[in-house]
Structures are given as structure tokens and as C-alpha cells.
Write a structure and sequence with these properties.
single chain, alpha/beta, Rossmann fold, 2 domains, about 20% strand, globular
Length: about 375
């Protein structure tokens, strides 16, 4: 019952945010407001406002996506086409250093002479999100605490496990390659989720991190780490860095070889007929686990040890970054929702990847046909 009301509350919040977001979208696509202040950190305009650039990674080719398990149908053909298309290469990445930069937490929005560096956020269109739009706009009115120098790591969406683990935390690869920054504190908000602190401790950066209270700050000197790839198109450098940093994470936990990753405790993208699927999966030797009940080291071990992973699209599948080559994964999508990121991670890690598409249900859920699940498991097993 508690989960029902949580989903109802979340649904109402999304509806209100969507209405405001539509108004912000009009301003964004018209280039008005903060949207007109987004520039590339590698641009001449960035140089004119005092941003110094240090290029550390050149673009590199990406391996083409691989699909191993899928059913035949019009919707499946559409998703196959989307999964097999995408970027051909990563993007160049580096460090941007500037003076007199402003930051606000908990949103992680920044301002440099009124501008936003596109490489220092996940994607410019996040400015259609009321939270980040207001975070940027509020900087002009807020009293700011002074800090001498820092390396900004907690950028917008750092509160999301996927975006933090796959797209933000691995930017420390750039920090590692810059000897001049090794004594400069890494800036993280105190309000960040536990997995942020846990990941920094496990990867060896906790002692170098400065945890700040929510509020506005003015940095005499700020260094910003650019993204390693476009949003949801995963960088192999990021996945390799994660495996190197978490190589020796080995808690004492007995884990199943076949895992169904449940989102039964989530407010969106949950499988509404999961009780039907669990019955099918148990006959194939799968054990149902909700990752919210496990620490970061335990989640890593679960995915490292598993031979086969099945689950709906969601942040927990970020742990595929640690899966062993040759393991199998089947991802569930709700019809009308698509993201290629877990296919990309599977390709990088050498996993056998498949997908199923289900029908949307109430409050952000969706249903998977048990017959479809049996059919795709017959292919894979």
C-alpha cells in the first residue's frame, strides 16, 4: 500500500513538472533564457571568458552494438533499428579551468560569467527541467560562500545511480591524468546519496573530497571535468576505469548465477505483472533480487558472479559494467520508452544482449507477456 501511494505521489509530481517543462521547452528551443547561455568549453567563446582548456582524450571509434536475443514483430524491429544505430565514436574530453565560477547545490548547476559549459553537464536539454532551470537562475540572487579552489565532480543528475556511476564518476580519469590537480579538493555536496560517498571511498577518492552543504558558492578557481561521451552513449574508457578502480571489491556474499533484477520498489518503469514473471523465471533457475537492499560492493559482486541477468530498464543495470565477458543479459523496455545505454555497456563488456518490449500500465509501470519471456529464454538457454 505504501508503494502505491508513493507511485501516486510521484505520478502527480511528474504531471506538474511536465506542464512546467513544456513552457521551458519553448524557451529552450527558441534559445531564450539559460538555453542561450550554453557554450562548449572547447570554443573560442569559452576562451574569451577566461576558460583554459586542457585536452586529455581524443575521440576513439566505438564498437558496433550487438543483439543476440529478440523476438520478431513490428515493435521489436523498431527497437532493433534504434539499438543498432548511434554514435560511431566517443567525443574529445578534457579539463576546463576558470576563475570566479559560481556553483549551487543540491542541483550542481554552474555559471561562468553567465555561461554554462555544455561538456560539464550531461546534456543541455536538462534546462527544460524546472529544478535545473531554477537552480541556474537562482544563482544571481543567492549569497555565495567563498572557496579558493576545487574540482567540480557533482554535476546535474549526480543523484541518479546510473548517471553518477557511468557518466560522472569516471570523469576522474581526467583528474588522474592531471598531476597539477592532485592536491586540489574534489567538490561533492553533503546531500548526495550514500552511493556517491561509498563509490568515492571504494575508488580511493574519499580523502581528497570536500563535502559542501547545500547553498551557493563562488570559487576563486574552479576546474571542471568534461563528459567522456554523449549522454547514454557509453564511453569504453569509463567502463574500463570503473573495473580498474573497483577491481578488488570482494565482499563475502553468496550470489546466484541467474538473477532477475526487480524494480518492484520503484516508482517508475516497474513490471506491473512481476508476480507472473517470477513464476516463469524460477522454473529457469532465476532468483529475484532488488538492488536497493544491497551495498555498492555487494551489487558489484552480484553482477560479477552472474551468468545471466534479466531486468527492466533502470539504474540497477548500471552494474552490468562489472559483468564478466560472455554473460547474458535481457533488458525489458516499456513500449514508447527507449535508451541504448545498457546495450552499449553489454557491447563494451562482451555480454550477450537481448531485449523484450512490454505494454505500459498505470502509474509508470508496464507488463511483459510471460509467453514472450518463455520464448526469449528458450533462445538464450
Amino acid at each position: 500500500m505504501f508503494q502505491f501511494f508513493a507511485r501516486l505521489k510521484h505520478h502527480a509530481k511528474v504531471l506538474v513538472g511536465t506542464q512546467i517543462g513544456r513552457l521551458l521547452e519553448k524557451r529552450y528551443f527558441a534559445g531564450r533564457g539559460p538555453a542561450g547561455r550554453v557554450i562548449s568549453g572547447f570554443s573560442e567563446q569559452a576562451k574569451r571568458i577566461g576558460v583554459r582548456q586542457k585536452l586529455l582524450i581524443e575521440p576513439s571509434p566505438l564498437n558496433r552494438p550487438v543483439l543476440n536475443y529478440f523476438l520478431n514483430g513490428k515493435t521489436e524491429d523498431e527497437y532493433r533499428h534504434k539499438l543498432l544505430s548511434g554514435e560511431d565514436a566517443t567525443i574529445k574530453a578534457g579539463i576546463f579551468s576558470t576563475q570566479n565560477a559560481e556553483i549551487t547545490f543540491p542541483t550542481g548547476m554552474h555559471k561562468i560569467d553567465g555561461y554554462i559549459l555544455s561538456e560539464a553537464i550531461l546534456a543541455p536539454y536538462l534546462l527544460t527541467n524546472p529544478k535545473y532551470y531554477l537552480g541556474y537562475q537562482s544563482l544571481r540572487f543567492r549569497k555565495k560562500r567563498k572557496i579558493d579552489e576545487g574540482v567540480l565532480l557533482s554535476m546535474p543528475f549526480y543523484h541518479n545511480y546510473y548517471h553518477w556511476l557511468i557518466e560522472i564518476l569516471p570523469r576522474l580519469l581526467l583528474y588522474d591524468r592531471c598531476s597539477a590537480l592532485q592536491d586540489v579538493p574534489i567538490i561533492v555536496p553533503k546531500s548526495a546519496p550514500n552511493f556517491v560517498t561509498e563509490s568515492l571511498r571504494l575508488s580511493g577518492y574519499h580523502a581528497k573530497s570536500l563535502y559542501l552543504d547545500n547553498g551557493a558558492y563562488n570559487f576563486k578557481k574552479l576546474h571542471m571535468l568534461s563528459r567522456l561521451g554523449t549522454m547514454l552513449e557509453v564511453s569504453p574508457d569509463a567502463i574500463n576505469w570503473l573495473n580498474n578502480k573497483f577491481e578488488h571489491t570482494a565482499p563475502t556474499l553468496v550470489t546466484p548465477k541467474r538473477v532477475y533484477v526487480s524494480r518492484g520498489d520503484a516508482n517508475i518503469r516497474f513490471v506491473s505483472n512481476e508476480y507472473q514473471l517470477v513464476d516463469v523465471l524460477s522454473k529457469f533457475g532465476f532468483e529475484s533480487l532488488a538492488m536497493s537492499g544491497y551495498s555498492l560492493p555487494e551489487q558489484i559482486k552480484i553482477f560479477r558472479d552472474a551468468d545471466f541477468i534479466i531486468g527492466p530498464h533502470g539504474a540497477a543495470l548500471s552494474n552490468l559494467a562489472f559483468s564478466k565477458p560472455g554473460a547474458s543479459v535481457i533488458e525489458f523496455f516499456a513500449r514508447g520508452h527507449f535508451a541504448p545505454c545498457f546495450n552499449r555497456i553489454s557491447t563494451i563488456r562482451g555480454l550477450k544482449y537481448g531485449f523484450l518490449v512490454g505494454e505500459p500500465t498505470r502509474f509508470g509501470g508496464f507488463a511483459i507477456d510471460p509467453a514472450d519471456l518463455r520464448a526469449i529464454l528458450a533462445q538464450a538457454l
